Input
Amino acid sequence: MKPAAFVYERPSSIAEAVQLLSEADGEAKVLAGGQSLVPLMAFRLVSPSMLVDIGAIAELGDIDSGPDTIRIGAGVTHRRAELALGPVIPLVAVGLRELGHVAIRNVGTVGGSLAHADPASEWGALALALDASISVTGPAGERSVGADRFFLDWMQPDLMPGEIVTGLHIPKPSSMRWGFVEIARRRGDFALAGAAVNLGVADGVIATARVGILGGGVTPLRAHTLEAALTGMDLVGAAEVAEAVDADVDPLDDQHGPARYKRRLARVVCERAIRQAAEAA
Amino acid sequence: MKVDLELTVNGEAVGISADPRTTLADLLRDHLGLTGTHLGCEQGVCGSCTVLVDGHSARSCLMLAAAAQGREVTTIEGMASESGLHPVQEAFSRHHALQCGFCTPGFFATVLEMMSEGVLADEAIVRERLSGNLCRCTGYHNIVTATLELLGGRP
Amino acid sequence: MTYVGIPVPRTEDARLISGQGHYLADLAIPGMLEAVVVRSQDAAGELRSLDADEALSLPGVRMVMTAADLPESARAITRSFYVLTPQFVERHAVEVGGSSEPVLAAGRVCRVGEPTALIVATDRYVAEDARRLVLADVDPSPAVVDPEAALSPGSPLVDPAVPGNLHGRFDVVVGDPDRARENAEHRVSARFRIARSVGSPLENRGVAAKWVDDTLTVWSTTQIPHVLRSYLAPMLGLEEERIRVIAPDMGGSFGGGVYPEEVLVPLAAMRLGRPVRWLEERGEDLMNSRHSRDQLIDAELAFDGNGSFRSLSMRILQDCGAVNPFGITLPFNVASHARSVYRIDHFRAEGLCVLTNKTRNTPVRGAGRPEAAFVVDRLVDMAAHRLGMDPADLRLKNLIPADEMPKDMGMMYRDGNQLVYDSGDFPDQVRTALEASGYQTLRDRKPRSDRHRIGVGMSCHVEGTGLGPHEAAEVRVDTSGKIVVRCGSQPHGQSHATVLAQVCADVFGIRPDDVLVRTGDTALLPFGGGTFGSRSGVTASAVVRIASEQTRRKLEELASDVLEIAVNDLVFEGGRVFPRGVPDAGLTFAELARLAAPGPASRRPHDPGLASLNTFVPPSVTFSSGTQVAVVEVDIDTGMVEVLDVVVVDDCGTILNPMVVDGQQHGGVAHGLGNILLEEFRYDDTGQPGSVTFMDYLLPTATDVPSITVIHRSHPTPLNPLGVKGAGEGATASAPAGIANAICDALAEFGVEVTEMPISPARLLDLIDQGRR
Output
């Protein structure tokens, strides 16, 4: 369980990191917190020739709260984000509490999690539910990708060779009703199903609905059908339409549960997350 | 090609050069002789290798030694002081919260962090926080009891 | 004061809580090389060749050992872990073949994970680099995975020497089960599937060896150092005297045997003349070590309308994996514990040991008893539902009463002795559990939502503990005056140093602190048994007691001689011996030890020193027993189960140290809980393993296991000097059945009957759905 040999670089700026990656012709990997990458390397499922450790890039470690947006640097740990965002966007804090265990959250980073693009990623579902965008820097400069378009396929984010995730931008919700429910075999395990629900409500009626699903397919995904069903409904009783999520998910079989079971759970987590949103005073 | 590292381990400055693929756990165990940190799975699940990095719990099997550059690492060997055992060590022994002792160092790191954060002495919260550390011997019962006591709850 | 029976704090802890334990991975021998094992990726096939050239050319690689490099005597482990008497074989129609497990695969591979080569290199990182460079040329053949299909004509053979893949069988008949069954008014039956689980201690296995001055020292995470030495001697062509096996601190174990790496690593060390160590990885441990359970049991309970049990019959299909050094041990354990605490006069159990292309099966914590309790206690609950009775009442009606103890169960135990429940009061135990758990009011507990259901379940077990053949100990008075205990049974978490010191201290009238316990090293004693089968509390305490008494007698004789006082007038107190009423006139143990030291002035010239080496040979097993009540809450939308409460009532006879015994109960419950709710080692239908990480093989965490209440109702056994019965495994036996019964109780409205272990949430939701229709 020891990684294969690699060349180790620890740049101090994003530009330097991008340059190292570009020069390393695709054989290099970015090391953020390493909580997903290091085990993959220990299993030798991944054996990069070079690791570019972005842990010393100070600018990636900032959390900036602007008037309309909160920007979380890619190098911010889950735990820091959980504690910092709790008072501002409690949905994030509650969702992140389901991400592994504290010892993982202390080291794992926002950017690492987004770039890993696991279908059971809490960050993925949260970013989708919050209409967040992801900033990416590469040889061609910086660009911003909406969370909707960032998760392309199984473990495949919208990152070109040489590009790194630099931050996550979350619009500050003026008022929102929210819910987050996740089901896993054990506390801290990868989700069998989870839902992050963000509802804009006016006079008891759902005006806008965004639902991010984890464990529902090959990527974290948005439940467009469910969102449409929710829009215009009375908040009270809205959980009844949760089964609309059926059309949005296409879960994978694995040994913790067959796809049809996860499909059932997707319905349950949506129903319960919507109810949470409705019940939160 | 080796990397030169400077970090603090149990309060002492350490300067060492290591193969970049060396994990923090192997640096502690094989290079510094601190074998109290145990490896149970080397994929970050069992929690036996948990140590404190800058006061926060971390899996030393999932952290490259190189990434611990400049950090302050605390292991089980750094817990006791000249005045004696740390209260965590005493409470675990008093409550028979260890049998084989293999997972114990990892639990210590987790509990130390809980104490420094002032986690509420609530059984459900404590169990949740301990759930990242596996133990096959104790059924967790006495570990939970010891931890609740350390957090100021019922003994 | 006496120390047996009180919660003496553990002497082990000081080291372990300071990071000063010495586990195998902590061993540092100058010049030590590191080994990794290359393993088969195929479940079955012809191993045509292994190409190690590229691996050997890697800088730092010192050796690649394959089957061709093994001496003839070390090619396979051919001893079996059982000795059956001719009477036993005849009585229970036993047929069982021999066992031969290749140390390295030669010619063919028979399971994924089978060792094919050993690589030795200067460090672990390089050894792992080399592992990827060893190429095996295997011509795969169809794997035998399903044990039922394995028995069908035309199935491929796992081992060409085992026709029909049937390696062993037995048939136990007690009374007239056929007639009793015919005459009974009701029957309930089911097919029970008990999945393969893995012992999974937190420390993986490991072996280190050095060969210096023609003497081999082997460090191994073994439960049986003396047995391992006896295996190694003929295989390595060495006298036992030239082999020293050390079991260092171990991070748990829960089951074992002798493994190929325990032969390979010493061979490598001897060949290279350098110390060599192999440390198992977690994936290897899950794939190769301590697999257990894996039974398919068809069982039927027949009973009358008034609830009286008439007969129990079962057919046990044991999936042994590719080799079977334990013979009929596991299915026979099911048979010999299946009637549990119940009076069932007519009984039949047929056992079949089937080979498949999987890792070999091994006794792990419980070893047949969890399976037995699961089957019989599920059947009892099904019978209660049939009759509309409360399951607790049906149990109470059928318990063996205390005044029938000792109870001859009409069959033999596998040690060849008649199976007799030697002691216990089952009705009291069950009533205590009902009372302590508040059984009558538990169902009134309100679930957390209308999507949840609460249920209560109960289970019982018996366990034959303290199996022979023997245990050994030497007790000696050190010249310091402290007493030294050397014992052949050693711990992997069980607190030997504390508990054996308590036993010894009481004999000498001293404090446990004045006893030094040494274990885990064949150099300490010429023989030893080991730690398995809930035996150390029974056999090690017994032999330490006996050896302590013998040594005390020598002290008495010497003191009597020196002080010129009759033995009966001597008092032992505080490490001194003195005439009754004259405490100042005595001698310290240290003074006596010096008087007995060899030399011209020795007071014991013909028996110098003050020591006694003894063995204890138990007459047979002694039966501990227990009852559990579990409360669960089931989410009917997700099938997720939360265990809210477990109450354990345990009878392990004399309690040596209640703190330690309670710890064993807590851990036992957690292990059983894992077995029924989480743990399953899977193979796909080509024999590829699917649970080789801790993300896939799920151990219970602190949020899965509830607070556990332990109550003792002790009935000491007459079968050993202290009246001790084993305590290490019982809670594991009862827990799965109790939790399963609680789940069924919670889901009674859906008619759910749990017959598989583990029951996954997905499967439970299926069963709930079936009931909804």
Q: What stands out?
A: The first strand of chain C starts at residue 33 and ends at 39.
